[in-house]
Amino acid sequence: MDSVKEKKGLENLAFDMDEQANNQPREKADNACETEEDRNKPTYCVTDVPPWYLCIFLAIQHYLTAFGGIISIPLLLSEGLCLQHDSLTQSHLINTIFFVSGLCTVLQVTFGVRLPILQGGTFALLTPAMAMLSMPEWKCPAWTQNASLVNTSSPLFIDVWQTRMRTLQGSIMVASLLQVVVGFSGLIGFLMRFIGPLTIAPTVSLIGLSLYDSAGIKAGSQWGISAMTTVLIVLFSQYLRLIPIPVPAYSKAKKLHTSKFFIFQTMPILLGIAISWLVCYLLTIYDVLPFDPAQYGHLARTDVKGDVVSQASWFTLPYPGQWGMPTVSLAGVIGIMAGIICSMAESVGDYHSCARLSGAPPPPKHAISRGIGVEGIGCLLAGAFGTGNGTTSFSENVAALGITKVGSRAVILLSGVFMILMGMLGKIGAIFSTIPTPVIGGMFLIMFGVITAAGISNLQSTDMNSSRNIFVFGFSMFSALVIPNWITKNPDYLATGVKELDQVLQILLTTHMFVGGFLGFFLDNTIPGTKRERGLLVRDEVHPEDASSLFGTENIYDLPFGITSCLSSQSWVRYIPFCPRKGLRSQHESEENDMSRGRGREHLPDDTKVINEFAL
Length: 616
Prior knowledge:
By secondary structure, the protein is mainly alpha-helical. Helices cover 62% and strands 3% of the residues.
C-alpha cells in the first residue's frame, strides 16, 4: 500500500510515472471504478509520512511557493525604515523573516492547529506599519533618500532606522498579546459569529489595493524590465504550468531514463525573477543600462547595490533584540491590532480549507483556539526578533496542497526547518536583496493583484444578487479608498488637541484595510439580512466541535508527545479552551458505534461529501 501511495504522490508532483503504473494492470482496472470524490482525496493525509526524497522535494516546493510573499515584506518595509540604500541591512531583515517564519511553522505544526499549514509574514500588518511610518514624526529625513549622502555605517543613519524599527517591534509585540488572549481563551469562536465574508472581503482586498503606489514606483523605475518580469510570471504560472520538462530519472525497472517534471507549475515566480535578473545582468555588463543615477532605468542595473554579497557573512543567527530594546507607540499598537484581527479571521478560513484539502476532519474549537494562540506567539517572536512584521497562515501554500495531493504535516515541518536554515545563511539574504528594483515591481504587479482577487473571492458564499450585499461591499470598498486619501492630503484637519488621540486616528483612518473592514463589519451586522444571504450559513452547517463524531480523527488535533493522554485524566482540562478532551471524543465514538449496530448493514450517507460541500 505504501508503494502505491509513493507512486501516486509522484504522479501528483507532475513526474511521469506511467511506466510504473503499467506494471499493475489490476490496480489500474480497480482505479477505473473510482469516483470523482475518490480522485480528489489526498494521496498522503495529515498523519502520513511520504518517502524521504518526496518530503525533501515538497518541502522545497512549499518554500518556493511562499518565497515571493515573504521576501516582498522586508523589501517594502525598507522604504518606511529609510533603508532604500542600505542593502546589507535589507539582507539581514530577509534572513530574520525567513528564520522566524520557519520557527513559527514548526511551532504551529507541532503544538498549534497541527495541520500542514505554513507560517510566514503577513501583509495585514504591513499596511498599518506603513501608515505608522508615514506619519510626520516618522517620515524619513530627506538626506536618507539620496544614495550619495547615506553612510550606512554612520551612527546617525543607524539611529534613524533602528529608532523606527524598535518602535515598530514594540507595537507588534504588545498588539500580538491580543491574538494570544483571543486564541487561548477561546474567544475566537465568539468573534467569528460577527465576522463574515462581507467583512473579510473588503479587508483583504484593500491590503492589495493599498499597495498600488509602492508597486507603481518600483515598476516605473524601468517599465520594460517590469513588463518582462510580469509577462514571464504570467506565462509560467498560467500558460505553461501543465507543460512538462524532461529530466533524467532512475528506476529499477527502466534504469536510467527521462521523466517529466512540471517546473513551471512549481516555481513560476522564482523562474520569472531569475530570467529577468539575468537579462538585467547582461544589460549591465554591456552598459546598455545608464550608469548615471539621474537617468531613467539606472535602477535596473545589477551593480546598484554594490558589493553587498561580499560584505555579508556566510552564517548569521538572528536573535531577539538584535536592533536594541523595543519601544511602544500607542497609535502603532492600535493600528497593528486592526491588522491582527484581520489576520485572525483569514487564518480561521485557512484552517478549514487546509483540513479539507489534506483529508482531515474540520478543525474542532480547541484546535482553532490553539492555532490562533500560537500565531499570536509567532507575532510576539517576530516582533522580538525584529522582522518589522508578524506571522500568519499562508493561503498560497494551502492551495498547493490541492495541487500536489500531499497533505502530510511532516512535509510542512521539514519546510519550516528548511526556512530556518535559509535564514541562517547570510549570503542567501544578501543575494535576494540585490534583485533589481524593476524586477521587484513586476513581481508586485502579480502578487498584489492576486491578493486583491483573493479577498473578493470570499464573496462566493454570499448572495451577490442581493442589493443589500452589493451596497455593503461597494460602499465599504469605495469609502476605504476615499477617506485615507483625503486624510493623507489634509492631515492638519485631523486635530483634536490631544496628540496621542490624533496619532491613533491618523493611523486608523489612513489604513485602507481598517476603514473598509470596519464599515463592512458595522453594516453587515446592523442591516437586516438572512444568514444565507450574508454567507454565514456555509460556516454553520457543520459545527467544528461535532466533527469528530462524523470522522475517524486518528487523534489528528491532539497535542504531541502524549501530552493529551496525560491531561485527559485531569478534571480541570474541560475548562481549558485549547486542550483536547478525550472524554467528549469517546462519547461521540460510542454513540456512533451504537447507531451503526442499530442500523446493521444499512448504507450510511457519505459524510465526507457533506463536509466538502459546507466546510469553509
